[in-house]
Structures are given as C-alpha cells and as structure tokens.
Specification:
alpha/beta; six-stranded mixed sheet; 215 residues; 42% helix; 7 helices; 8 strands; single chain
C-alpha cells in the first residue's frame, strides 16, 4: 500500500448540533480517527486539512504512531477561528497543496450555500475524493414539541418556530430533501463516492458498505 491519505475535516459551528447520544462534530471526529488508524495500519501516510470558510490548519501527511496521536489530539482539541462553511476552500487547497495523487476523505455535514461543484470535480480528477456526510435526524424531521427557539449556528439570527404546525414541519422536510438532492447530484456529477451517516446510526457499517462498493 503506502498510499497518501488526507482528511478534510469540517470545523464549522453547525456541527455542534446533535439530538441523540452525540453531536455531529463528535461523530465526525470518531470517523476521522477510525480512518486515520486504518491508514497507519496499512503503512500509509496521513494528513489533515481542518477547514471552515478558511483553512484553519494543515497537517502535512506523514507516517508513524507519534504523528497519528498528534492528529487525534488536534481532532479533539482544535478551536476554529470561524463559524461558517465554504466547501470550495479545502478542495482548492487540496488541489494546489498536494502534488502527488492521494485518497482524500471529506468529512462534513455539507450545509453550505456556496457552489463547489467545479472545485470538487477538479479535485477528484487530480486525487481520489470520497465524501462522508454526517447529519442529525432532526434536520430531516422536526418533532412536534410546540414553540422552540432556534439559532443559526453559523450566524447570529435567533427565531421562534412552532413545531406543532404541520406546515412548519413539512417546510423543514422539504428543505432537507432539497438539500440532500442537491448534494447527491453534485457528488454524482463530480463522480465522487459518498456515504451519509446519521448521528444515531452505526458509522462502521456505513463505512464498510462504502469501501465494499469502491472495491
């Protein structure tokens, strides 16, 4: 083997959301750590690009136990400077910074308003790009719990919504389905393999299914 593996890890504030046993950020860190340990077992080099709407930190790929422990510490402790997300930023950085072909795993909730299809297509031509989406089921399905205050995690806006309203719950479902379809279309058009994992599901099964599909 001795490949180069890169992790593109989203640190935006929307990942702090979670309604089951863990937040999206916690699951994302677990998945990233699992891939990192697998890479070391295969004697691969492993590196990380931490991003929001900017590059928060770049750890160049290396081998070794000491290096992997450094990556794990950063996964658990890094504090981003920005709250927002721009998927295009790490993709362009990956394309320009790594000259040798690598396998790159992008881990994010992919809640991003900007267009990143061209950047993803170009990055996947140069490297082998894999997308792993982490999401919470309450983004897809609001519970009927009455009036609640919600905050835009990547902005400052706070509003009250009435979750007992069928119209409100349906609007949320439609928004989520639209977001999911746009993401799916973008990844398919860019020819990027991908998997979506919910915070209350077993991500190991999802990863095994993804790798089986790629083989």
């Amino acid at each position: 083997r001795e490949l180069t593996v890169m992790l593109l890890v989203d640190l935006s504030e929307s990942l702090d959301f979670g309604t089951s046993t863990r937040t999206k950020r916690e699951m994302l860190a677990e998945i990233a750590a699992t891939i990192a340990f697998a890479a070391i077992q295969n004697n691969d080099k492993i590196g990380v690009i931490f991003f929001t709407d900017r590059i928060e930190k770049f750890i160049p790929p290396q081998k070794g136990r000491k290096h992997i422990l450094y990556i794990i510490r950063e996964l658990l402790n890094i504090e981003p400077e920005s709250k927002r997300t721009d998927i295009k930023v790490p993709l362009e950085f990956l394309t320009n910074a790594l000259k040798k072909r690598c396998t790159a795993f992008m881990l994010s909730d992919f809640i991003c308003t900007g267009d990143y299809k061209n950047a993803m297509t170009i990055a996947n031509r140069k490297h082998d790009l894999v997308a792993i989406q982490v999401y919470d089921r309450r983004l897809a399905e609001l519970p009927n719990i009455g009036l609640v205050k919600v905050r835009d995690a990547e902005g400052e806006d706070e509003i009250y919504i009435d979750t007992s309203s069928k119209k409100v719950r349906e609007a949320q479902r439609v928004w989520w389905n639209t977001q999911s379809n746009v993401l799916k279309d973008t990844l398919q058009r860019s020819r990027v393999d991908y998997v979506s994992v919910r915070t209350d599901q077993d991500y190991v099964k999802a990863l095994l299914a993804l790798f089986a599909q790629r083989n």
